[in-house]
Amino acid sequence: MGERIVVADRLASNGLALLRSTSGLDVIETVGKGPDALKDALLDAAALIVRSETKVTGDLMAAAPKLRIVARAGIGTDNIDLEEATRRGIPVLTAPGANSNSAAEHALALMLSLCRRIPAAAQSMAEGKWDRKQFEGTELRGKTLGILGLGRIGTIVAKIAQAFGMTVIALDPFVLATHALSLGVDLLPLETVLGRADVITLHIALTEDTRHLLNAERFGLMKKGMLIVNTASACGFTPQFAGLEELHETYGNRGLVVLGFPCNQFGAQDAGSNDEIAEFCQLNYGVSFPMMAKIDVNGAQAHPLYQWLTQEAPGLLGSKAIKWNFTKFLIGKDGAVLKRYAPTATPASLAKDIETALAA
Which pLDDT score is estimated for 233? Predict the structure, then answer.
């Protein structure tokens, strides 16, 4: 038996084959086997390989006394307790640039989708309608793109956007001015970028400094109709579990029932099993309200509940599609859908509507 390498998340088959063909390695996959199987495998592990699904917490590291390295097959480390890894002397390796091109192309695809109103148009078409006038949209050519974060991904986005005929400006306090100059990109203060741009795209990590970077005051600086694309690591919605738990505790005895429906259709962010998701929510955010089994909320296999919810309360431009996790619906005592809330709406912002519904 060689050095044990535990692969906790899905990797490409050729990557696994490369590991297994390397002499002196004992490769064990624990994908989909649950947290207990992972901890058992880690007991004698020298290395742990993860993507974004597995949360490498202090407790997990404590279950791996021989662990010498954590490897993240990607660039983000928001699922790894870096402080604890440092304390234990465990280096954390990432793969910078591994998905940079994919992320950049995805950002441009989202821009095009927003400009041409593709989601709403596709939904309308699927419903047998033909309303071209409503979905004319606009072009990227001639628009100004503001990039927040001119690193690997932001740089690729800048080059593609320029090929579309866009003027590119950026904010990045860490990048060299010569790099921006070589790209033909103007580095500007945040407020200037927000005031000039027609489209904003985020390519910065979520930190205490960048959390709520775009707040109410800065939204006020933007042009009317500004388009915002966020493909950055950890958009920050997961902490809403704590806010939802607070609503559950505050209003539960007055009749409010909070139900969570995990869905893996949004960037594979809920890739774990039902038990793993429930355990994660309970351990990290103290969730005690019911977490239901994973379902589909969009497409042909959408759960009937969500077919009804989106029919009763469509989203922006009449689209019935759920755009991201943490879309919320408020249901009245009579079973009617009272309101639909965007993923960005904090649980606390629902309190007034909940009070009104409970008093009805």
Answer: 57
Site of tokens 């985020």: 202
Per-residue tokens: 228: 């915002």
Q: Kindly report, as residue ranges, where domains of CATH 3.40.30.10 are found in the chain.
A: 240-359
pLDDT (tens digit per residue) in 83-125 = 899 889 999 888 766 678 888 999 999 999 988 888 888 888 8
Strand order in the sheet with 92-93: 25-29, 3-7, 45-50, 69-72, 92-93
Q: What is the mean pLDDT of the chain?
A: 87
Sequence letter at residue 34: G
Residues 168-210 pLDDT 10s: 999 998 888 889 999 999 999 999 999 999 999 998 876 667 7
The one-letter code for the residue type at 255 is G
- Please state, in angstroms and rounded to a whole number, the distance separating the CA atoms of residues 54 and 36: 13
Give residue 237's pLDDT band: very low, low, confident or very high (50, 70, 90).
Answer: low
CATH 3.40.50.720 positions along the chain are 3-93, 100-230
H-helix segments, 81-151: 82-87, 100-115, 118-126
pLDDT of residue 299: 82
What's the rounded Cα separation, in Å, for the pair 120 and 113? Answer: 9
Superfamily name with CATH number, domain 100-230: NAD(P)-binding Rossmann-like Domain (3.40.50.720)
Q: For residue 305, give Cα distances in angstroms to 128, 290, 310, 311, 329.
A: 22, 16, 9, 10, 11
Query: Is the CATH code 3.40.50.2300 the one for domain 3-93?
Result: no
Contact 203, 232 (CB under 8 A): yes
Q: Do the beta carbons of residue 346 and residue 236 sit within 8 Å?
A: no
Residue 126 has pLDDT above 80, yes or no: yes
Residue appearing with tokens 């001119």: 150
This prediction has a pTM of 0.55
* 35's tokens: 């947290």
- The CATH number of the structural domain formed by 240-359 is 3.40.30.10
